[in-house]
Amino acid sequence: MKDDGKTPHRDSEISAFLEHILRRLQQVSRLPTVSSSRPRVEEEACARDCATFSSKRVKKERRILSNMVDQSLINLRETSINHSSLNEAEITGLGPLLQQFVFGASETSYRMCLLAYNARSDPQMDTLRRLGQEVVGDPNAEPIVSAYRTVRHFIGRLAEHIRIGKQLLEDAIRMRHVLDVFQVAKVEPPACVPPPQVDAHTTLDGILTRMFPSKGSNLSEFQFVLGRHEQHVGIEAKVKDQYAKIHAKPPIVHSEIQVLEHFHRHKLRFADGDRFVGTSKFSCFCCKLPCTTYQ
Question: Rounded to an integer, what distance in angstroms lies between the CA atom of residue 126 and that of residue 120?
């Protein structure tokens, strides 16, 4: 589980939470016929625990979402961009969805996450997706498109705190034996290597060439598509900006890679020989090459 805290106090909080949640999952997994009649209250309690524990992260996500929702509501009222793929009814219909995420000061982490989770199936989420994918000719319109894209992303991030709780419960029922005996212990993360410097190969073509195999790939197709977007969005410049940011604040290793490295370094065995570690974001595709080390 990811967490931004680094203090010893926070370490103890994490350990206590993991002990608590694993104990709850263990108890649920031992209920008779639980797979067909799992009490809804257990599912809700697990989701609530996860959302509450992540309240610090939820507050950050809520702040970004609220800012982008405010911007998007202003855009709906005051801007007139030609959205070729959407009709007027679809765009104006976004209002009710966005208004759900104008949170009050007393809104709890769980409540905010639950609202986001329930909004996933709203048809207007697809409208947000299409608005966020638009390529507009006016450079000044990019912040407007970006706001819609960010709103959809952070609704998904808040919803994830609820989905995780539900998923943990499902996994506990399916793999009861894993919870027969468990132990929570702190593992020191591996040090991150120094970020690379920007050089002559830090271009879209250079990056794609390194990501795709030389034979039998659709590299040229990706180069063509990104080349079209580059004219309007300036992807390459944004990539170089990110290089500058990570040098100013070096990143930590993804938690998924930390798990693999811990098992590899200490020659440990995965349960049932299953080395699969789920990833949570597309950026983990960039970890494909280091992951081959653990094969």
Answer: 9
